[in-house]
């Protein structure tokens, strides 16, 4: 039986948010056009590149998924990323408020796990070699709710990214450990994404991804995700798109919309 704490344990994510917001608070300023975001959203994979030291990035949005052809779910994911050095970025995020729909049964609602940990940017891309990064994260459960399984999770993701002319390519390989304890399950994840600039400020991306089965914590999944982006400033990107699932009995499709923004920078010279 997997270890499930009996009381909400939010000390670690709260400490992470405190560190995220207070450590770099030397001199705060508004973003300038020299500041650039490196969004993880709305692709499932994430780029190996990180923003310049001192940059705080906020990613937020909402999405709807048709589950199993009958039920559906609304989620409101959010991610904060603070870059401290060219090597180190701290990330704190969650799928946020989640609503499960299964008519005619009553809907279920809960706050999903808080996920936090470092992203290490190991190598910049060169003429032939890609940039490389490694993300290590811990998922911390929130509050007891019907339909929500309270367990600790761990995630390790390797990132490789390369610019090839107007095309940016991201490759992710990951291992997830769902439910740290006696009944834990592992899940493998792989994704390949191609992002291209169209007529500025418009962009587009397409991504193929897949996850193995890790029931009862996470079902198998996969799809081809297509999206459009709008970037009126280098530090602001809007996105919208969707993807049909490879396994309609588990997930039929997903539609999403959101944005990535640099709300403030820290420690920059004026």
Q: What is the highest CATH level, the class?
A: Mainly Beta
| CATH architecture label name | Beta Barrel
Radius of gyration: 19 Å
The first-to-last residue Cα distance is 56 Å
Q: Rough shape? A: globular
Q: List the total number of helices.
A: 1
What structural class do helix, strand and pairing data support? Answer: mainly beta
Q: What is the share of helical residues?
A: under 10%
**Tally of discrete structural domains:** 1
The total strand number stands at 16
Q: What is the element string, with H for helices and E for strands?
A: HEEEEEEEEEEEEEEEE
Q: How are strands sequenced across the largest beta sheet?
A: 2-4-5-8-9-10-11-12-13-14-15-16
Could you explain the architecture of this structure?
The structure is a single chain. This protein is mainly β and 270 residues long. The protein has one domain: Beta Barrel (Porin), CATH 2.40.160.40. Helices cover 4% and strands 55% of the residues. The chain has one helix and 16 strands. It has one helix at residues 11-22, and strands spanning 28-29, 55-67, 71-75, 78-83, 88-94, 97-102, 105-111, 114-123, 131-140, 153-164, 167-178, 185-197, 202-211, 221-233, 236-244, 253-266. A twelve-stranded antiparallel β-barrel has the order 2-4-5-8-9-10-11-12-13-14-15-16. The radius of gyration is 19 Å and the shape is globular. It starts with 10 loop residues before the first helix and ends with a strand.
């Amino acid at each position: 039986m997997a270890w499930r704490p009996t009381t909400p344990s939010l000390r670690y994510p709260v400490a992470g948010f405190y560190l995220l917001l207070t450590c770099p608070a030397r001199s705060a300023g508004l973003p300038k056009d020299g500041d650039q975001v490196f969004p993880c959203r709305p692709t499932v994979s994430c780029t190996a590149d990180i923003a310049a030291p001192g940059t705080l990035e906020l990613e937020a949005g909402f999405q709807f998924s048709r589950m199993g052809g009958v039920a559906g779910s609304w989620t409101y994911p959010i991610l904060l990323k603070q870059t401290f050095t060219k090597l180190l970025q701290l990330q704190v995020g969650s799928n946020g408020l989640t609503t499960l729909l299964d008519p005619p049964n009553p809907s279920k609602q809960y706050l999903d796990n808080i996920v936090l940990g470092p992203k290490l940017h190991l190598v910049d891309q060169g003429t032939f070699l890609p940039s490389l990064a490694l993300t290590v994260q811990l998922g911390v459960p929130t509050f007891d709710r019907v339909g929500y399984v309270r367990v600790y999770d761990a995630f390790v993701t390797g990132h490789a990214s390369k610019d090839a002319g107007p095309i940016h390519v991201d490759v992710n390989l990951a291992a997830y450990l769902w439910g740290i304890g006696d009944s834990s399950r592992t899940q493998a994840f792989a994704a390949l994404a191609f992002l291209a600039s169209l007529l500025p400020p418009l962009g587009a991306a397409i991504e193929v991804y897949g996850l193995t089965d890790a029931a009862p914590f996470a079902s198998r999944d996969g799809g081809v995700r297509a999206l459009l982006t709008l970037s009126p400033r280098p530090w602001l990107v809007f996105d919208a798109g969707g993807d049909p699932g490879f396994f309609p009995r588990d997930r039929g499709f997903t539609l999403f919309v959101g944005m990535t923004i640099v709300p403030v920078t820290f420690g920059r010279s004026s």
